[in-house]
Amino acid sequence: MERSGKGCKERTLTRHFGRHGREFTTKRRLSPYIKSRHEHYDIGAPGLGPVELPQNGLAPMDTSTLAEHAGTAGALFASVFVVATTTMRTMIPLRIFGILTNIVLIISSIATRNYPTGLLHCVLLVMNSYRLHQMLQLVRDVKRSVNSDLSMDWLKPFMTERNCMAGEILFYKDEKAEELFYIVSGRYRLVESGIELPVGAIVGELGMLSPSNLRTQSLECIEPGTILSVSYSKVEELYVQNPEFGFYFLRLSSARLFQNLAKAEERLAQLTAPAAIAPKPA
Amino acid sequence: MASVLSSLRYLLADVIGDDDAAVPSPPENLPADAVPVVTEAIARLIDYQGPSYAQLYVDRLKRFVGRPGVDAADLDDIARLMAARMSYEDPIRIAQLKLAEHAAAAVPTPASTDGDRKRFRIDELIGALPAVAAEPVLDVLEWVGWTHAPVSIRYSAANRFGVRRLKIEAGLKRWRLFSIRYAKERVWVERWLHMIDRALTKQPQATRAIIRTADMIQGYGSVYRHGLADWHAIVDGLVKPTFDGVLPLADLTGAIAEARAAILPDPRQVALKRKIAEIRARALPEATPPVPA
Fold first, then answer.
1. N or C: which end of chain A has fewer CB within 10 A?
2. Which is nearest to B139 in space by CA: B128, B150, B147?
3. What is the pLDDT of residue A34?
4. Is residue B225 within 8 angstroms of chain A, CB to CB?
5. Nearest residue of chain A to residue B241 (CA atoms)
6. Beta bridge partners of B118
7. Measured between CB atoms, does B190 come within 8 Å of chain A?
8. E strands within B168-252?
9. CA-CA distance, A280 to A276, in Å (whole number)?
10. C-beta atoms of B56 and A176 within 8 A
């Protein structure tokens, strides 16, 4: 049916929708120049004639507009997530929202065939997921440490390795403390007290929380080895990024302080006990 | 425009290394004689790096204020020499001093030929940059074998281009505390203070001599390197073994003076090493091999 004067072709299609077989009539208007997608590009090509309706009377779905709409909706949806991500104050929610944004943008970029954007968000998705995993693992490890052996092994992924020579002083007494150390190998001695530190020991974790920030003893390397170190500013960064980590870190530090106190009391008791039970001279 | 720049500066303060800490005041109970020295040192270190760095100086000095065995003269020396070492002369400092000289001069200084030219070693120059950037460069230089190659830099404020270049070089001070050179200087200052501290408990009469060893290290380039090497030779050969109880040197002050007198501008330190060996041999007669009859 040709509509005179407007140059538009109007087809009346009958579609069957619904459970009860109700009939709806839709009118579809096509541009005079684009009769169908195929006709536009392949006009005159052999074997490609005008669109023919299938025998059941259903019109073929125009997926190009659907993809466009999906892309627009995806972009709008992703914008909401981007705004939400920027409002996050701490690291874990920020990463979660970052991941959601990446997923939405990957889907919408596939729909709109914008593959470079999709690729970028695939890379960002991997990075966000890795960082989120790292942060969740950190919180889990600190919690576990508080409830078990009070070790600080969980800090290892954030530490940098350094080799020490025999005779090297890692820090001096009364020096302003700026980093804590984890002993991996070699032998190390606290100069003033003469105490040798075992492999796996952490040195200097309380200096971060003490008001004066001063080293109470010097640490000397007496046999070459490797240590890991992390700056207080890095630990502070983790603390600020993640309040849950901060809370458990405080609990861990306090527990280690009480443990040290208990050891000191025990040692004092051992020193005073023989004197108390010593027989009086005749 | 100025307010926009100020806002941006505030926003990026951490990145660009701005230091907005409060200006520190001299430690309480500081002897009156030492106050001018410490005040001048604080001003110098604020100009050199910033208020936080000056605060570090004050904190270091506090360790010796009111300490038994440290008199006003000693404290004055510690304050003066520590300020000198904490404001060590690296290429950035030389640019800062040249700019200050240019600002103070009423008439622009004419371009001189050799007066503004300073000679460094390439590792000294690269060492003033942040460690993240400097370490890979130094690795490459080491691989090529150019670590000790001499470099000559002209510091001139004779024209606008020269002043602009000096300002850029002086602006690198924002990242100075991340440099390889700063890490070394920090260790040196802490070691020197530690030796003073140990002298106070082990041999108080040698304290002043140990404090004054800091003036062995001055300037930049080869002068600086020789001074530093000589200082380490004396401390490792005489001072530390004495405090560790390994070397029974009753007169450490005399031994340091004797060793310092033997210093010559010789990179191999032949005379100094011989003198240190001689002093050690005198102090350890039983350790020396017996002379055959």
1. C
2. B147
3. 46
4. no
5. A167
6. B153
7. yes
8. none
9. 10
10. yes
